[in-house]
Amino acid sequence: MRYINLPENIATKVFVLDSGALAETPAVLKNHFSGAKPLIVADTNTYAAAGGDLYDLLLQNNMQPYEPVILPGTPKPHPDYALAQLLSEGFPADCVPVAVGSGVINDLVKCAADLKKLRYCCVATAASVDGYTASGGAMSVENQKKTVPCPPPYALIADSNILQTAPPEMMASGYADLMSKVTGGADWIIADMLGIEKIDPACWSIVQDDLRDNLSDVHDLEKLFLGLAATGYAMQMYKDSRPASGAEHLCSHVWEMEHLTVNGEEVSHGFKVGIGLLAIAQLHEFVINTPIEQARSMARSALNESQRAAEIDQLLIKGCYGNAIQPLAMEKTPFGAELLLRRNKIFAIWNDLQKRLAQQLIPSATLRAMLKKAGAPTRFEAIGLEAEQYFHGIKTAQLIRKRYTVLDMLYEAGLLDEALTQLVNE
Predict the structure, then answer these.
(1) Mean pLDDT of successive 10-residue segments in the chain (426 residues)?
(2) Are 65 and 59 a contacting pair, CB within 8 Å?
């Protein structure tokens, strides 16, 4: 059985990726969870895919598992923190929670296990997200999208036979999520060059060194899963999601808070990220392709505090983003002399930044073709967006986190609105 080598300084200690890896789960639980009784948490879909077989394996190995907790699969479970709290209340003190599923199930169990101070194991059912090995759970907390701090799985089991049976759109979603590390890395370069958030070489290497190779074949399930897992290691090491996400994820968060659906079904995380990354890649290309003299001449005058507050209120008019966003957006906006210093710094590094971004970025047309080949959507209409909501989401994404991205840089340079006019939706 293939045990994957892991960085020493992360909390995930066991990772099995192989054909038939599900059969290794009882041994992993016996060897690494001190005799705790397994408690499977799944939904009806993931229980059918792997949970039922795992429960039988646990019985055959005399592990006395608790009765599984099986959530409804239709409609799909939502990553709501209140549900994680409810799950936690039902966890016996001597259990080892075993999340059988993908992003939502894993995040729910991750948070619930932490609330009960239990280590947990994850059995993946799809190569659909980058959060399997990440610290923190992507949760809705009082309708606001947040990353709730909590430890990653102590053990991860990925049976390639099971992963291959997942609906094709789940692998496409995972591929889009992995591709977002291209634009996420470009955003980190901007923050690094402006002295706002320095690049951590070890974390950068874990995500970026093999990224292009892991994206080279849209049908290579193993490369995809290894790439997704590696981003989780980096997030653990950095204690933040910066190594794995940038403005494209912020766009996704906005659309998630707006409850984006297609035919009544919630749009997958990866598909929202994929549409976001195509937009953000084009904003990076705007920087790369705009000469410094032209950039300076196009820069709009800065808003004063009252004008900016009014603009923020208008962007948040839907009222679905939580009460903390407006003060955060004002806090992160520089004004007066501070803004002038920042704008001067942006234009001072513009030429060097163009070179570094060009080295990092894959052309947006190529990214679009890769997503299309993977079966992921490439037009915003395909994920239920109208043009107004699409552009509104990109501008609103600049408000919702302190993380510095190309959206912040273009806003501070007075170029964001101009750059948005050049976006292409194909």
Answers:
(1) 95 97 98 94 97 98 97 86 95 97 94 96 95 86 81 97 96 97 98 98 98 96 96 95 96 93 90 98 98 98 96 94 92 97 98 98 98 98 97 97 97 98 93
(2) yes
Nearest to 249 by CA among 285, 216, 279, 226: 279
The answer to whether the predicted template modeling score (pTM) of the entire model surpasses 0.90 is: yes
Q: Judging by DSSP bridges, how do beta strands 261-262 and 265-266 pair with one another?
A: antiparallel
Contacts of 268 (CB under 8 A, 6+ apart): 128, 169, 170, 173
Distances (CA, A) of 342 to 122, 298, 336, 413: 44, 17, 10, 8
State the Cα–Cα distance between residues 235 and 241, nearest whole angstrom. Answer: 5
Contacts of 336 (CB under 8 A, 6+ apart): none
In 29-119, at which residue ranges do the beta strands (DSSP E only) sit? 37-43, 69-71, 95-101
SS3 158: strand
Q: Do β-strands 69-71 and 95-101 pair in parallel, antiparallel, or remain unpaired? A: unpaired
Cis bond upstream, residue 75 (ω within 30):
yes
User: In what helix (H) or strand (E) does residue 138 lie, and over which residues does it extend?
Assistant: strand 137-141
Q: 3-state class of 384 per DSSP?
A: coil
DSSP 242: G
Number of neighbouring beta carbons within 10 Å of residue 146: 18
Place of tokens 């970026």: 208
Tell me how many degrees the CA angle 48-175-142 measures, rounded to the nearest 5: 70
